[in-house]
Amino acid sequence: MQEDAAHGVRKLVLLHGRDQARAMVPPERKALVDIAAEVLADDASRIGITYTGFCLTSLPHKRLPDEAAWEKRGHRVTLLVEPGRLKAAGRAPRLHGVPYGARARMILLYLQTQAARTNSREVELGRSMRDWLGRMGLSWGGETGKALREQAVRIAACSLKFFWEDEDMEGWAAGRFVRSGLRFAERGNDSRQGELWDERVVLDEVFFDAMRQHPVPLQEAALRELGNRSASLDLYIWLAYRLHTLRGPTTVRWAALRDQFGAGYSELHTFRRDFRKSLAPAVAAYPEAKVELTDDGVMLHPSRPPVSVRLISAARS
């Protein structure tokens, strides 16, 4: 089950340790060794939370034209994200495109994790957010901080809708990620440069209720290791939701995988090549995952979730 890549390097790390495992694999697999070693060595056992809808759909990986909406179809669910306008003091309302890339995903994971941990729509920012991003290897300064602030504005401005095909799940008539807050200083003359303008952000009530009813726990160490790989991060989150709900081996065919993960790919063979590259880090970060690449697509096998029930109970207490 992907023995030639992620599962293989995991076994090497367990048997020989990181340094010797790195010496035993070709250069292109050394990064997989590092991912597996970091996740296996995680003692903090911190968890992250995301909403089920984001396990089956995702944001774009690259920037779209500011006026463009984003529609993404997953397994029995479709996500629609539309750009929005925000007004700054003394300025006309400005259109901000939809959020995209790894930085947007990490901000959303923080907001969802904190809201789930405190069971409150109000999420504290400031130091708590910077500490979390720091654990993810993201600096609040420099170009990384600039990218984080840009994505935060896009998240605050956009609107979203989830359309579910399951009769037990209601679609959203309207929705946002956040109701207020999530504004950042950008001016060099402002002594608060790099600091958050608001001390808290209030999540949209519909979004918060949906997340609270359908949370998916994730391993924080895995999020950190995949934080700069948006495609692998999406696959990890997808597997974290799908694998432990299966009752038996399930094949997801290449056409369906391209519909969910292959926006922008016109050639199936190109998507298959890149999908394999993105899947390997995701599986390396999820030691319990049982995944097998086949000619038809991906064979998913029932697997333990990445976060144990014991850790979930401890996080909620």
Question: Would you write up a description of this structure?
Answer:
Strand 4 (84-86) and strand 5 (94-96) form a beta hairpin. Helix 1 packs across helix 2 (18-24). The chain has 317 residues and is an alpha+beta fold. Among the domains are: 1-41, no CATH class; 50-213, no CATH class. The protein is globular and about 60 Å long. It is built from 13 helices and 13 strands.
Task: Compute the number of helices.
Answer: 13
Helix fraction, binned, reads: 40-55%
Strand arrangement in the largest pleated sheet: 2-3-7
State the distance separating the first and last CA atoms. 36 Å
Record the SSE blueprint.
Elements: H1 6-16, H2 18-24, H3 30-40, E1 47-51, H4 52-56, E2 70-74, E3 77-82, E4 84-86, E5 94-96, H5 101-118, E6 122-124, H6 127-135, H7 142-157, E7 159-164, E8 178-180, E9 200-203, H8 205-213, E10 215-219, H9 220-225, H10 230-242, E11 250-253, H11 254-261, H12 268-284, E12 290-293, E13 297-301, H13 309-316
Antiparallel strand pairs: 1-10, 2-3, 3-7, 4-5, 6-9, 8-9, 11-13, 12-13
